[in-house]
Each structure stands twice: as structure tokens, then as C-alpha cells.
Design goal:
Residues 1-26, 221-300 are annotated as: Disordered. The protein is an all-alpha fold. It contains 12 helices and no strands. The radius of gyration is 45 Å and the shape is elongated.
Amino acid sequence: MPSDRDSIEQQRSITPPPLIGEERDEESRLLEVQARRDLESESCAPCHPPHLEAPVRRPPEKYRQIIEYWQSLGSTDDVVLCAQRSDWRKFRHYQRLQREYYGKKPFGLLEAEIRERRQRNGLDEDVQLLPDTRQQSRQQDLIEFQDFHLEFWERKTKDRQELRDQLEEARKIAGDRGAEGSGCAARDAISIPQVLEYADSILRWHDVFLQWIERQRVAMDPRPQTPVEQSRGDQDTSVSPLRYESSNAPVAVVEPPQSRPESTKPVSKDTTLTFPNSPRQILKRRKKKPRRSKEKALVQYSPHRVAKANRLAVIRTNLMQGRNVVAPGTIECNQSVNTRRLRSAQPLPADPS
């Protein structure tokens, strides 16, 4: 039976020794090379140029902050491009979920939501996305990627504010109750600042990352052409790309704009057509079905009452005109009564016997 010493020696022979020095650096370089290839094939620009060999220990000032941001994450170690690839793939998964969620809704709702978030954070509101992400440009993907991290930043900011409110309340309770009966509040007053410090650190580093994304977005010039400009490009190559100015108008939920030829003109300049709320507009009223007359209803449900009423109306009209005529139904009734009387007044035939 093998002893404990033999089993320990066997485990040591199976477990590879940890990488040290050059071996570890070589593994990091191989991982970073593969991560760079993946990022470029998935339309994401790596955070530093290829001439900075991994592991990057003394980055230039131009790339220092973004490299330190990735290194600030717990699982990054010295493979920053691997961390960037993982984050980019999380965004791609989120992008697919967004398309599935807005697949049954007007796509303009997604663009309006992104515009509102960008407006809250002091960014321009020029957002033009496509339902099919495979047709989007790098800049359009970067705008969505920026919104993905803006949403994370807003959520963490809200969590930090809640921590601050909890800390203020705990300190107030601890101060009111004194040393007795304030054990829970005192513990919160000690533990919450540590969590709050960690939340502040996350937001500071994420703010660095958002600034880097914004510089990447601004550097992308010219902006992607609209379908109208692409159709013009075949006719006139001197047309400069269309730029959109930021607007302070409230965001409206609209459908994606439909391109139309230049030769088309508005249908009309009349305000009744262009502005639905104009007082000159003719209100369309709902058509009402004609009500059924009372006489038809009586004929359907009480035909004898209608016949009697008609006879009385004829008699009343004749009396007013001085005629001694009765209604047709009354004549027939009187004739039948007289016939029965005559028949009863005739003598019986004689008995043949």
C-alpha cells in the first residue's frame, strides 16, 4: 500500500512547476499575440501598438493610462489584450441581446435611449445605428460600445450614492443612540467606508476608460456615409461627408429616416397637412350607423299592434276630412259579421217528408 510520501511525490510529478522569468514572459507574449489577432478580426482596435512587446512594464505616456486600467482589473495580470478581448466579447453578447429585445419594437427606440444617455453625460447626440450589426461601421460599433460602458458607469454611480446615503444614516443613528444599543449602526459606519472606497476606485478607473473610448471615437474621421451620400458619390465625388451638429432639442422617438431622391418635393406647404394639430385641419368624425326607426322595431316584435295603429290612423284621418269611410280591415270585419247574420235569418228548408 503506497504511503502518504509516495502519493505526494506522485502529485508533484503530475503538476507542472510554475513558470518563472523568461518562460512566463514567453507565455504572455504568445497569449497577447493571439488576443491581438482576435481583436483585429472582431473589429476592435487593440489598446496599444504591436511594437510594445508583452508584457508591457514601462509603457509610453500615450498608452500608460489605458494599460494601467486593464492591469487594475483583478484577473488581468500582465496580459492586457486578453482582458480587452474578454470585455469586447461581453459587449458583443450585450449587442446581440439588444437587437433581440428591440426586434419587435421600433428600432428608433434604441437610438433614442442611447441619445438620452449621451446627452446626460455631455456627449453629442449623433447616433445612427443599423438593425444588422454586420453592416455597421467601426465607429457605429464604438458608439454602442461607449454606451455599454456608460450604462455601467451610471449604474455604479447610483450604487455609490446609495452607499453614501447608508453611511450617513448609520452615522446619524450611531450618534443619536450613543454607545449603548448602536452596535449594528457602528459596524455599518466602519464597514461601509471600505466598500465606498472600492466603489470610488472602480469609477475613477472606468472614467479613464471612457475618456480613452471617446478619443478613439473622435479620431475616426470621416464619419460613415448615409445611404443618400453613398448614392451621390457615384455622381459627384467632390461632395464632402455630411456632419451633424449637436442639437439641444428634446429627443423624439422616430423611425429610421427613409432616403429619398433630391428631385422629390414636399407634397404640400399647407399647415393642415404638415402640422396635424393646426386649427385649420378638418376634424374627421366617426361615422355613426343610422338608428332603426321605432316603426320597424314594432313591426319586428309586435306586428298586430302596428296593424291596429294603422287602422286607427286611417279612421282618424277620414273623420277629420268628413268622410264616412272606415278602414279596410274594419270593412272586411263588418262584412263577415253581416254575412253571418243573414245566414242565421234565412228560414230552414222544409222537411221532405
